[in-house]
């Protein structure tokens, strides 16, 4: 971030930061008192230096503002710089801790002032004032009578070299404070951005996990609805048929009851599979490659589904159109469940004279399943899950579903799902389980 772009992104100082500033001010106060005492004994300014009492007062006044340097960084920087200027002007015997205090004050302005334009102006004015003062003192020293400290003979005399050293040291001193303050501010912003990004990722992870759980529950609910609705409907029809012919045709009743038993076993098997899905942390319906396991139903089970529908009182035909292609296993499961639900609804609502036709059509780039029946059309029940579940299955595979009464009577369910497969001899062999279906001549 540039030094002159205003921002409010810098976090406010915490309580431990303020406690640390108090401890820093206390440590510098002790150091300033010791430095003032030793400088006074060493006669830092010779006979012109101020009394030790002024040095102790200066030490306290210089270090106390640093205790609140993060709360009022600009004010502290100005106060510390002015005090240092006064101390050097009046030859108060303490300069070493004063240098440290000025560095910390200027650094704090760069590190903690959120208004970057104000931070730049305050530091530039302070540094410019210090260099102007250095120029004045240099001019005074150059024009003062020679006291024998440094020779001034020659263009590049020892006196000139000493003054250049002063400018070099001050340039490095103030430049370092300026640069380190800006770097500390930029690092704080980067740390804050990283913390915000981490928190955002954590929120996204929680939302994603909740969505995954919801989607998994929705998928299991669809499977449970399809299994229970289909098998229980078939068992009800077969049990009713057995009851109606029990007295006059025991063999037919026995056959119908055998169908009830078979449907019950199949329903229990499907329910056991779903319960295994709920108990296991890994989805047993998905293999290591992300595909549906081989035990899951697919398009090759449509002939058996049509046969069971016929046996349970709904005459049903299966027609295969087009050249079969490879269809993803998940799409196969969804199409099978759509056909199962459509036949269940036809058997439940179509009436005793209803008949159904299942058509599986392979088009370039898509596969279409159409289930029609010729029975009556029941009024839609509020809260019904059949059509909703079929739409969700089609949408989960990127397809669409149409469902509604036909103009010539009966009901139509049509699902179209895009696929990217191409027909080949091997793929036609894979489609062999549908060979028992009839094809239009």
What is the element string, with H for helices and E for strands? HHHHHHHHEHEEHEEH
Structural class: alpha+beta
Walk across the major sheet and give the strand order.
Answer: 1-2-3-5-4
Helix share bin: 55-70%
> What is the number of E strands?
5
Distance between the termini: 75 Å
Mean pLDDT: 80
Q: Uncertain runs with pLDDT below 50, 5 residues or more?
A: 1-8, 283-295, 422-433
Question: Keywords for this structure?
Answer:
441 residues, rod-shaped, 61% helix, single chain, five-stranded mixed sheet, 11 helices, alpha+beta, disordered N terminus
Describe the structure.
By secondary structure, the chain is an alpha+beta fold. 61% of the residues lie in helices and 8% in strands. It contains eleven helices and five strands, in the order ααααααααβαββαββα. It has helices spanning 15-41, 52-63, 73-89, 96-112, 116-143, 158-245, 250-279, 302-311, 329-349, 386-396, 425-430; strands spanning 316-321, 356-363, 366-373, 400-405, 411-418. The chain has a five-stranded mixed β-sheet with strand order 1-2-3-5-4, covered by helices on one side. The protein is rod-shaped. Mean pLDDT is 80; it is low at 1-8, 283-295 and 422-433.
Summarize the structure.
The chain is an alpha+beta fold. The chain contains eleven helices and five strands.
What secondary-structure arrangement, pairings included, does this model have?
Blueprint: H1 15-41, H2 52-63, H3 73-89, H4 96-112, H5 116-143, H6 158-245, H7 250-279, H8 302-311, E1 316-321, H9 329-349, E2 356-363, E3 366-373, H10 386-396, E4 400-405, E5 411-418, H11 425-430
Parallel strand pairs: 1-2
Antiparallel strand pairs: 2-3, 3-5, 4-5
Helix pairs in contact: 1-2, 1-4, 2-3, 3-4, 3-5, 4-6, 5-6, 6-7, 6-9, 8-9, 9-10
